[in-house]
């Protein structure tokens, strides 16, 4: 480590080279230290890689340094906005045999700029390329798996440099924790005496052999640099797979054992006793059994699985009764009036055909599970890093164009992994969908494994798509040209889960979704690897049968048996528990005793003869949950939001239902309501994708807005998602003040209405319109002459 003053005193030397590891654009446009060369971090560390942060090829690294005009014996001083990334550059140079001294600029760019006479420049130094060569040193401080096993037995001090939350969730046995940022204060290294005390506290002494590991090698590298700076001579690091330690068979990760523990504490001290005796980290493990600790301490969100979205009327009635009785807020959080729109005792239908309810207490969970057991319901592995609820076509068995009966397939997959300890702690959640009709309504494009109809040698089955997903780094699933017979599907899921466990990233939370593994391998290699795990021969389909994409099932539809099924719109997916139970009664009395849940947070009642159909349509319940809603109410999809979620930045449910109703009134008034079946607004309360914002006509994700005068809630906005054409939205504008969003929607819809061609969809129009023009509409375009949202519309 060197100070800015040291660098200022030495930078005129030809052999001292400052290395800027920021993005090349920042180096060029924002300025850099005088004389500094650019070696961007994304050139020697690929953040999209499953092996994020691991060493680049020696020849690639040598080319980077040669291009920057660096000689093998130059003294290098690395800096950037991220000190850990600058440290990673130095460690990479050390491992590949750089002969000169290697230093990290303490405090980085900000520390340099703190000097009165120190400035930045945009002038690029004129350095001639060199003949730099790199090769892995024999004495490089890299260790292998055997060294780690020896360290576990006491041969060295194992140091985990991840965050506290990551360390508590999973770690190598015996490892001590040292968050790399604990070594810094205001971006600079803490005083040496403070560091020595901090390290001694953890048993990290200079005369010990120290072995570091992490989930991102840049953070590990920073700790390595600091320890070497403090005089620690025997420091090494491990960059291999830690899967075998993280995916343990320990009983605390067994969902069956967890369920037994919760049942015990339900009758013996409740929440506080459970946390006191099992530790705070038990709250993360409870996701495996469907319990998600909400932001209000001591209360849980309970998620109930509905494989393929199917519930018997008896099951639906039980869920509604449980919500009505137990999903109730305590007095300190508002009691019966805790939510001004939905009141109390409500539940949420999710985009994965689950049911969620809030305010559940440990003391009540045993009784809830008993009621569930009596009707064949389960919450096990509805959350957590396991094979999640299998999504299926909501109209399975009802659609005249259906090729494959998916009900036995969904049931077989669901039962195979339910409570299986081996598959209960995957690197990340594993999402599967199965569609038997020709409209891909289970959304194969955004699943880890999506199956749609196909045919081979006259047999009906499925073709597999892999590696889809949203959130950061969204990716459309790849077709791997694999035909799967219906009775092979559960074996394929198991093979894919085994591959994921062996090759997926357990520790790097930024890239531990299966889609990153597919992207790194490429579809062809992934197919080859997957075949080595499967116990059946891989063959290609003769033809694929998916012809279209279906966004929702709202409305009255004729079924294959001549009877009708009705899709009811449930705006934002939220219903009262008593209403859900009432719907179950109607399905029992008028249909065949079945309720279906859809990926659009709606519900469906099947098997209705003509008289029963008319009777259902006349029910008062359908005035609120209509099969013929306005376009905005039909298209609204939201996540849980700030109301309960620890990550939520904006409130979603109440706001969205208010917007949808008022926008429908506006659409009627300006005469565009009949022109649009559904206008899809998908709103997530944070940067995650629980509401699938990438799929909406309008995609929103919660943000915080700040300017020179005030701050408030806001949303990033994107336009033009269309999963039917494998298109995600383009994020166009960031941090729109949340109260301005409805007017932005109005302005955009007016521009589309005025400018679009006949039969041109909203997505086609956004594709045709430049991003600059769309941004102008969003930020400046006036809506039609009409009342603003939030004012009374008569």
Automatic annotation (TrEMBL):
Source organism, top-level taxon:
Archaea
Q: Which CDD domains match?
A: TST_Repeat_1, TST_Repeat_2
Query: Which GO terms of the molecular function aspect are on file?
Result: 4 iron, 4 sulfur cluster binding; heme binding; metal ion binding; oxidoreductase activity
* Record InterPro entries: NIR_SIR_4Fe-4S, NiRdtase/SiRdtase_haem-b_fer, Nit/Sulf_reduc_fer-like_dom_sf, NO2/SO3_Rdtase_4Fe4S_dom, NO2/SO3_Rdtase_4Fe4S_sf, NO2/SO3_Rdtase_FeS/sirohaem_BS, Rhodanese-like_dom, Rhodanese-like_dom_sf
The parts of the chain that form a coiled coil are none
Keywords of this entry: 4Fe-4S, Heme, Iron, Iron-sulfur, Metal-binding, Oxidoreductase
Return the SUPFAM superfamilies for the record: Nitrite and sulphite reductase 4Fe-4S domain-like, Nitrite/Sulfite reductase N-terminal domain-like, Rhodanese/Cell cycle control phosphatase
Q: Which residues form the signal peptide?
A: none
Q: The Rhodanese domain covers which part of the protein?
A: 12-121, 152-254
Record-linked Pfam families: NIR_SIR, NIR_SIR_ferr, Rhodanese
Q: Which PANTHER family match?
A: FERREDOXIN--NITRITE REDUCTASE, CHLOROPLASTIC
What family does the database annotate?
Answer: Belongs to the nitrite and sulfite reductase 4Fe-4S domain family.
Q: What is this protein called?
A: Nitrite and sulfite reductase 4Fe-4S region
């Amino acid at each position: 480590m060197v100070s800015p003053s040291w660098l200022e005193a030495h930078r005129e030397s030809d052999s001292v080279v400052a290395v800027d590891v920021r993005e090349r654009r920042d180096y060029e446009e924002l300025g850099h230290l005088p004389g500094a060369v650019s070696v961007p971090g994304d050139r020697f560390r690929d953040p999209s890689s499953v092996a994020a942060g691991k060493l680049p090829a020696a020849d690639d690294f040598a080319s980077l340094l040669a291009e920057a005009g660096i000689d093998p014996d130059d003294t290098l001083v690395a800096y950037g906005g991220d000190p850990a990334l600058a440290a990673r550059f130095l460690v990479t140079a050390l491992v590949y045999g750089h002969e000169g001294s290697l230093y990290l600029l303490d405090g980085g760019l900000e520390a340099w700029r703190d000097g009165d006479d120190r400035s930045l420049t945009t002038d690029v130094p004129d350095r001639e390329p060199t003949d730099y060569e790199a090769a892995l040193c024999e004495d490089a401080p890299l260790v292998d798996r055997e060294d780690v096993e020896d360290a576990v037995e006491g041969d060295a001090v194992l140091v985990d440099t991840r965050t506290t939350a990551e360390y508590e969730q999973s770690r190598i046995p015996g490892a001590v924790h040292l968050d790399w940022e604990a070594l810094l204060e205001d971006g600079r290294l803490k005083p040496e005496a403070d560091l020595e005390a901090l390290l001694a506290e953890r048993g990290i002494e200079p005369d010990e052999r120290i072995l570091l590991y992490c989930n991102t090698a840049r953070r590990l590298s920073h700790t390595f640099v600091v320890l070497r700076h403090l005089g620690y001579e025997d420091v090494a690091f491990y960059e291999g797979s830690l899967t075998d330690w993280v995916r343990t068979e320990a009983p605390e990760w067994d969902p069956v054992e967890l369920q037994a523990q919760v049942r015990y504490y339900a009758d013996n001290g409740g929440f506080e006793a459970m946390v006191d005796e099992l530790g705070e980290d038990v709250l993360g493990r409870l996701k495996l059994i469907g319990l998600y600790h909400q932001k209000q301490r001591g209360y849980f969100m309970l998620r109930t699985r509905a494989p393929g979205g199917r519930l018997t009327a008896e099951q639906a009635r039980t869920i509604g009764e449980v919500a009505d009785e137990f999903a109730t807020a305590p007095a300190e959080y508002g009691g019966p009036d805790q939510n001004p729109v939905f009141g109390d005792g409500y539940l949420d239908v999710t985009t994965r055909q689950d049911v969620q309810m809030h305010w559940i207490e440990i003391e009540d969970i045993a009784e809830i599970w008993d009621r569930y057991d009596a009707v064949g319901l389960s919450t096990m592995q509805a959350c957590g890093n396991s094979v999640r609820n299998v999504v299926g076509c909501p109209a399975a068995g009802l659609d005249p164009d259906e090729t494959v009966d998916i009900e036995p397939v969904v049931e077989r997959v669901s039962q195979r992994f339910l409570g299986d300890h081996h598959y209960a702690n995957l690197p990340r959640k594993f999402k599967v969908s199965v569609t038997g009709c020709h409209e891909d309504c289970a959304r194969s494009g955004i699943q880890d494994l999506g199956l749609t109809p196909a045919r081979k040698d006259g047999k009906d089955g499925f073709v597999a798509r892999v590696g889809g997903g949203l959130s950061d780094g969204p990716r459309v699933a790849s077709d791997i040209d694999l035909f799967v017979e219906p009775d092979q599907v559960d074996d394929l899921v198991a093979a894919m889960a085994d591959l994921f466990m062996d090759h997926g990233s357990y520790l790097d939370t930024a890239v531990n979704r299966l889609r990153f593994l597919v992207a790194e391998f490429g579809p062809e290699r992934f197919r080859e690897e997957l075949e080595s795990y499967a116990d059946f021969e891989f063959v290609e389909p003769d033809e694929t049968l998916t012809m279209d994409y279906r966004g929702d099932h709202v409305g009255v539809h004729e079924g294959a048996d001549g009877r009708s099924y009705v899709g009811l719109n449930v705006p934002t997916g939220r219903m009262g528990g008593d209403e859900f139970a009432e719907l179950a009664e109607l399905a029992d009395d008028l249909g065949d005793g079945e309720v279906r849940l859809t990926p659009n947070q709606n519900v469906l009642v099947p098997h209705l003869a003509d008289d029963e159909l008319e009777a259902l349509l006349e029910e008062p319940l359908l005035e609120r949950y209509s099969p013929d809603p306005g376009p905005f109410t039909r298209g609204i999809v939201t996540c849980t939001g700030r109301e309960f979620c620890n990550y939520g930045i904006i409130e979603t449910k109440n706001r969205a239902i208010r917007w949808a109703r008022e926008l429908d009134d506006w659409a009627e008034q300006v005469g565009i309501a009949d022109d649009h079946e559904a206008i899809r607004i998908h709103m997530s309360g944070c940067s995650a994708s629980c509401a699938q914002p990438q799929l909406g006509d309008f995609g929103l994700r919660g943000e915080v807005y700040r300017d020179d005068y005030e701050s408030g809630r806001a949303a990033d906005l994107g336009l033009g998602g269309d999963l039917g054409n494998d298109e995600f939205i383009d994020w166009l504008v960031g941090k729109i003040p949340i109260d301005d969003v409805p007017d932005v929607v109005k302005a955009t819809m007016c521009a589309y209405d005025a400018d679009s061609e006949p039969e041109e969809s909203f997505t086609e129009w956004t594709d045709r319109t430049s991003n600059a023009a769309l941004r102008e509409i969003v930020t400046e375009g006036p809506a039609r002459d009409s009342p603003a949202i939030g004012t009374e519309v008569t």
